[in-house]
Amino acid sequence: MKVLIAPNAFKGTLTAAEAGAAVARALRSACPRARAEVLPIADGGDGLLEALAPALGGEIITSRVEGPLGAGLRARWLLAGRTAVIEMAEAAGLRRLSGVKLRPLEASTRGVGQLMLEAARRGARELIVGLGGSASNDGGAGCAQAFGFSLLDGRGREVAPGARGLPALTAVFPGEARARLKGVRVTGLADVRNTLCGRLGSARVFGPQKGAGPREVAFLERALLGYARVLKDSLAVDVARLRGGAAAGGLGAGLAAFFGAELDDGAAFVLRKTGFENRLARARLLITGEGRFDEQTFYGKAPGAALASARRLGVPALVVCGSSLLPAGALKRHGVAGVIESGLSPRPALALERAAAAALPGLLARLGLPV
Questions:
Q1: Is the pTM of this model over 0.90?
Q2: H-helix or E-strand containing 84?
Q3: By CB count within 10 A, which of 99, 150, 256, 332 is most buried?
Q4: Domain segments of the chain as ranges
């Protein structure tokens, strides 16, 4: 019996590969005859490089860039022929601020632009940028500045980093970026469908996750609205209501405006590139999951996309997670045959392995699968 184990990263605790390995060990213990295939998946957020590297090949490169608050750090990216994969969270992610007070108005995407520029200089002509896990709310302004765009205030000076500098923005000029972008195609992989501005926009929905209080959320909304107006005036691109524009603190909107990027569904892109459905069609069971399993899982997240594929192909599916907030009715509606929760633990891989080993025999028997 073949079992496809395809987890997303458990944010802040386990990579997708670590989670998959823990479940595979549990499956071997519970069902020695089962053949496990571990396939890490992602949706543009944490774990994108890990998910795409086996499919695309190439080389993982480490470059020194500016972090979200300006300090230097080393960020990884993938170069496969003339295609580069950049995980924005490597340079401007919340995980880069571990143990540091969050500063949602100052955090910048400048390091992401530096990675994009490095990739272009090394010959990449397709830049795939994963959008998720960001610490920033600058709408991609820092990314654009690092690539060579000029974002100027009323006195002709470059605006300050982060969202705090956006209200001063009056004009955008291509600068050196025009020549650097010649022959380069950019794709943004979004893990959300929200627009840049509005009730379900970047500031109001995602600002609090990055440390923004009510006053800062109101500031961010005004700043991003004004930013969108300047981009429309200077670049003739309207991103205020662009679907997916809110991704990564508005970086999705910035990539579309400055780089002419298409915003793709990150989960669908990864599943397509990794051959997920072909692998799933040969399996008798899918085990997917992530750290927190809730309704948001089904709004652009990789495990939600994996579960939708399993329903379509008639493959039973189980979910492993740190915690689940979904009632039985919702699980049935989404085709989830069972949930295994590992809870909080100082040793998350061991906790997941033990929880899965304890639950799998009963779940497999209930599904009529051999134990």
A1: yes
A2: strand 83-87
A3: 256
A4: 2-41+275-339, 48-267
3-class secondary-structure state, position 254: helix
Phi, psi of 206 (to 5 degrees): -105, -15
What is the average pLDDT across 360-369?
Answer: 95
> How do residues 288-334 score in pLDDT, each as one tens digit?
999 999 998 998 899 999 999 999 999 999 999 999 999 999 999 99
CA distance 177 to 146: 9
The answer to whether 205 and 246 have CB atoms below 8 angstroms apart is: yes
Segment (H or E) for 279: helix 276-281
CA distance linking residue 101 with residue 165, whole number of Å: 19
Q: For the segment 260-287, what is each residue's pLDDT rounded down to a tens digit?
A: 999 999 999 999 999 999 999 999 999 9
The correct CATH number of 2-41+275-339 out of 3.40.50.10350, 3.10.150.10, 3.90.1180.10, 3.40.50.920 is 3.40.50.10350
Number of H helices, E strands in the chain: 13, 13
Residue 258 and residue 293 in contact, taking contact as beta carbons nearer than 8 Å: no
